[in-house]
């Protein structure tokens, strides 16, 4: 299959092909990549925190840090704080627009850059049946939007954004907890937090680690080019960019 895929692409000598693996591959897949000259590149960004969903929710919560349990109890004890899963296409578009506004404000507040093209992604995200949209509302008003990719075995946290009101309510904790409950109900066995950055974003890392300490490698990125020099140069550049 990989050979047919490469033949179909008809790469020119200077073209690059990158395959990003978000899960560890099976031995046959790794063998195929190595056999065709792909070069694996592992960086700090190729790591995530994963939660085992096979225990029941009481056991999952009991294994979490005390502060995480406290935040869950705090959030679930607020009657004006609700979690709403959105299925209507118009509601999903509206929620995505809310996410964009919150995400832009968050970028300005924290000063980070992002390669997410929200304008290009808007219609794709809203219509993708594999994406779960969750709004946390306070008094009926959205204060947090979370977008999660769903699959048979693994649900992966993709994007989240919130406003200042969410911080004092425990909205982020409630969102993750409701998604975990939903994932278990639909038969998923693992929840992927979508990456970790303890050096650059310690607060978010600590939030995720309070629920699970299972840090795993989610990469690597496999680099291919017909020209061996270009292949090695691209792999080296990708590695150095992450340092």
Automatic annotation (TrEMBL):
Keyword Cell wall biogenesis/degradation: yes
PROSITE patterns with a match to the protein in the record: FEMABX (PS51191)
Name used for this protein in its record: BioF2-like acetyltransferase domain-containing protein
Coiled-coil residue spans: none
Family that this chain belongs to: Belongs to the FemABX family.
InterPro entries reported for this sequence: Acyl_CoA_acyltransferase (IPR016181), BioF2-like_GNAT_dom (IPR038740), FEMABX (IPR003447), PG_Glycine_Bridge_Synth (IPR050644)
Species the sequence originates in: Methylorubrum extorquens (strain ATCC 14718 / DSM 1338 / JCM 2805 / NCIMB 9133 / AM1)
Leader peptide range in chain numbering: none
Transmembrane segments: none
Domain of life: Bacteria
Boundaries of every BioF2-like acetyltransferase domain copy: 66-209
Gene Ontology process terms (BP): cell wall organization; peptidoglycan biosynthetic process; regulation of cell shape
UniProt keywords, alphabetically: Acyltransferase, Cell shape, Cell wall biogenesis/degradation, Peptidoglycan synthesis, Transferase
